[in-house]
């Protein structure tokens, strides 16, 4: 484990087959960490896979072992909840490349006995999904009742439907896109450069040095966090209010509340995340473009798909705006796939899918139960 964290025991499985990556590299026997909730029925037909976002993890409905906080969708995934764990067997997998138990740059390279660091191969969203499919194979699960994801999780859900249409009955994509825009890539590059400019990054080989690039990772998190919010939400919450003072200091302390908030977000992040994992996962998102292997024709990624799709966007989300969801829906309709779409109104920007959103939850419940 990297960063300032102490090692944590996760629920893990070592894949019994090599994982071939899109880059051409191969991970011989990668480890995959996951959490599961609710009973698996005898027919193994009640499985819902939830895919997590960039800085999230497999602890969707259980206490996070590092922060001690409830799962990031614990209000949704619970007995009697929107995703009812009395009825469904819910699985959430830590993506390959991450730092919460699945193989990533902080993992030990068996060839050297030291952490991979930047020797870990670059991974893609497709690689993450391929690893999840192999995990499900080992668990004896052939088909998913649903795959659900928001943000990067939505990218994984799209990739699942595109690459394994016979294994997915329905896919719910929330606040996501079928490709990363130039603006998205630009923000990620700012974060990566902040990490790599930190002298404690040491070319990524920092694990045994006692010096970690906490400043760079903190700045990366602060920059990214701005994109998760909306101008209206920021203004409503912080405005230009000063932080614990009556007047400006005419210096560079956190005079404004928004500055203090961002600094808190950055500092708390480095306690639960590895800087190199941040580099690898943001790169995977930047490379994501479902239409690319099809000559730029997104519809061809879903041609004759039997999957039932649902898409949700938020009108204040400028990271993955509604236009990106409409583009996917148009492609799905062009491919003859079943697809429904709803844009919800929210002042909370991209983060709306993680917050208390009864309207989204009703849509989610209806989508999961449709046709049953």
Features:
eight-stranded mixed beta sheet; single chain; 9 helices; two-stranded antiparallel ribbon; alpha/beta; 372 residues
Q: Can you characterise this structure?
A:
The chain is of the alpha/beta class and 372 residues long. 31% of the residues lie in helices and 15% in strands. It contains 9 helices and 14 strands. The strands form 4 sheets. The chain has an 8-stranded mixed β-sheet, sandwiched between helices. Strands 2-3 form a two-stranded antiparallel sheet. Strand 2 and strand 3 (26-27) form a beta hairpin. Helix 3 (182-197) packs antiparallel against helix 4 and helix 3 (182-197) packs antiparallel against helix 7. The longest helix has 16 residues, at 182-197. The radius of gyration is 20 Å and the shape is globular. The termini are far apart. The mean pLDDT is 95.
């Amino acid at each position: 484990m990297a960063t300032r964290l102490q090692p944590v025991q996760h629920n893990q499985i070592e894949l019994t087959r090599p994982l071939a990556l899109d880059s051409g590299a191969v991970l011989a026997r990668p480890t995959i960490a996951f959490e599961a909730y609710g009973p698996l029925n005898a027919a193994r037909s009640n499985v819902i896979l939830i895919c997590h976002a960039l800085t999230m993890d497999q602890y969707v409905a259980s206490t996070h072992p590092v922060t001690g906080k409830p799962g990031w969708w614990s209000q949704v995934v619970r007995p009697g909840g929107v995703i009812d764990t009395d009825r469904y067997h819910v699985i959430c997998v830590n993506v390959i490349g991450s730092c919460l138990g699945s193989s990533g740059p902080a993992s030990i390279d068996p060839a050297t006995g030291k952490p991979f660091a930047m020797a870990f191969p670059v991974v893609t969203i497709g690689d993450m999904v391929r690893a999840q499919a192999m995990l499900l194979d080992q668990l004896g699960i052939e088909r998913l009742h649903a795959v659900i994801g928001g943000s990067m999780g939505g990218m994984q859900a799209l990739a699942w439907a595109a690459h394994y249409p016979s294994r997915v009955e329905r896919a719910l994509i929330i606040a996501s896109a079928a490709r990363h825009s130039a603006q998205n890539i630009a923000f990620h590059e700012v974060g990566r450069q902040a990490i790599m400019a930190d002298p404690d990054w040491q070319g990524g080989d920092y694990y045994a040095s006692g010096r970690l690039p906490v400043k760079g990772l903190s700045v990366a998190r602060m920059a990214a966090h701005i994109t998760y919010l909306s101008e209206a939400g920021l203004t409503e919450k912080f405005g230009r209010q000063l932080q614990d003072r009556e007047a400006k200091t005419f210096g560079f302390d956190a005079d404004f509340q928004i500055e203090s908030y961002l600094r808190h977000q950055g500092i708390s992040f480095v306690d639960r995340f590895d800087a190199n994992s941040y580099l690898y996962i943001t790169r995977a998102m930047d490379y994501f473009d479902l239409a690319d292997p099809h000559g730029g024709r997104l519809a061809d990624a879903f041609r004759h798909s039997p999957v039932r799709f649902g898409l949700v966007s938020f009108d204040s989300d400028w990271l993955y705006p509604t236009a990106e969801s409409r583009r996917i829906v148009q492609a799905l309709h062009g491919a003859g796939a079943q697809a429904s779409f709803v844009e919800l109104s929210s002042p909370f920007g991209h983060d709306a899918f993680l917050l208390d959103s009864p309207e989204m939850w009703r849509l989610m419940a209806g989508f999961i139960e449709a046709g049953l």
